[in-house]
Amino acid sequence: MRCREPATATVQVDTGHVRVTRWDFNPGAETGWHRHGWLYVVVPVTDGTLLIELPGGQTLTAELKAGVAYSRDAGVEHNVVNAGAAPLSFVETEVKGLPG
């Protein structure tokens, strides 16, 4: 069993339509295992390297560039770890179900 420092999640907006959370990671910090219930968009605040732990023991790395956004569909399950030597931050916007 691994014990890592938790990343800090600060909810900035939470409405019926979206939730915006800023994530701040010290080196080696993690989100903890979670599953995304909604489509989400991530905008890195800083450059950095993430280690993504996936179900079944698989891992991958992702290079973040400040200001370069990416999105993922609902259903993604993972643990996200700051694999770099410097703190990193990103803002995650979850899009809640909308009629239409």
TrEMBL record:
InterPro entries in UniProt: Cupin_2, RmlC-like_jellyroll, RmlC_Cupin_sf
Residue stretches making up the Cupin type-2 domain: 22-92
Domain of life: Bacteria
Annotated organism of origin: Siccirubricoccus deserti
CDD domains per UniProt: cupin_BauB-like
Protein name: Cupin domain-containing protein
